[in-house]
Recover the amino acids of this structure.
């Protein structure tokens, strides 16, 4: 009996506390929301308004600086392909789901179709054009040829860049590491086995 009463009291007590906590939380959230809204308004007031007309930007791609003007809505992929004639990375889905546009930025892979060109300023963007030295292919490019890792070639530059990024961090990856690094890229021609073989057997990529 005593235990039952104690139990009921605890439940009843916990309901009261919850209600108080609820009102406290709502009050605190409202205050926090007001503070955040105020801070955001202040930031918006300080931030320069860009666009919709073109703005001057500077991109560093494969070690070369390019000055150009683009509307702020232009993606890095479109800026490279349509303004700078750097067409190695392909536009296939244009919505961040196939990996054909994969570039390396400051050591990490990104979908160039899903990044604004203005946001790539001040960063080191690398594309497939920057890999070979004269007529000598980069070891990853050579491995793709050796392991029959391409057919139509549309996905290939993206796969190559994803593989380079992997090997610059992990020169001897396990099959699981290679699969994980390449799982953001899709090949409609079915070259995945060749790509995986290239990723696992390429030697001589220096750490990035
Ligand atoms: S074109 Fe960018 S992910 Fe497909
Ligand atoms: S080689 Fe054709 S899509 Fe991959």
């Amino acid at each position: 009996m005593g235990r039952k009463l104690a139990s009921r009291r605890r439940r009843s007590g916990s309901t009261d506390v919850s209600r108080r906590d609820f009102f406290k939380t709502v009050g605190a959230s409202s205050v926090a929301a007001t503070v955040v809204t105020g801070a955001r308004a202040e930031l918006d007031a300080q931030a320069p308004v860009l666009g919709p007309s073109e703005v001057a930007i500077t991109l560093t791609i494969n070690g070369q600086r390019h000055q150009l003007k683009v509307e702020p809505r232009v993606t890095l992929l479109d800026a490279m392909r349509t303004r700078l004639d750097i067409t190695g990375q392909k536009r296939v889905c244009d919505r961040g789901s196939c990996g054909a546009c994969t570039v390396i930025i400051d050591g990490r892979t990104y979908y160039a179709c899903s990044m604004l060109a203005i946001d790539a300023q001040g960063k080191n963007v690398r594309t497939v054009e920057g890999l070979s030295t004269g007529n000598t292919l980069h070891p990853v490019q050579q491995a793709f040829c050796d392991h029959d890792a391409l057919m139509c070639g549309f996905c290939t530059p993206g796969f190559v860049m994803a593989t380079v990024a992997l090997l610059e961090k992990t020169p001897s990856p396990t099959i699981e590491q290679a699969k994980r690094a390449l799982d953001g890229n899709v090949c409609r021609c079915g070259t995945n086995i060749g790509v995986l073989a290239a990723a696992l057997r390429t030697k001589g990529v220096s750490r990035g």
User: Anything to note?
Assistant: Residues 150-156, 187-189, 191 surround FE2/S2 (inorganic) cluster (ligand 2) (CB under 6 Å). The beta strands are 55-61, 64-70, 102-105, 108-111, 124-126.
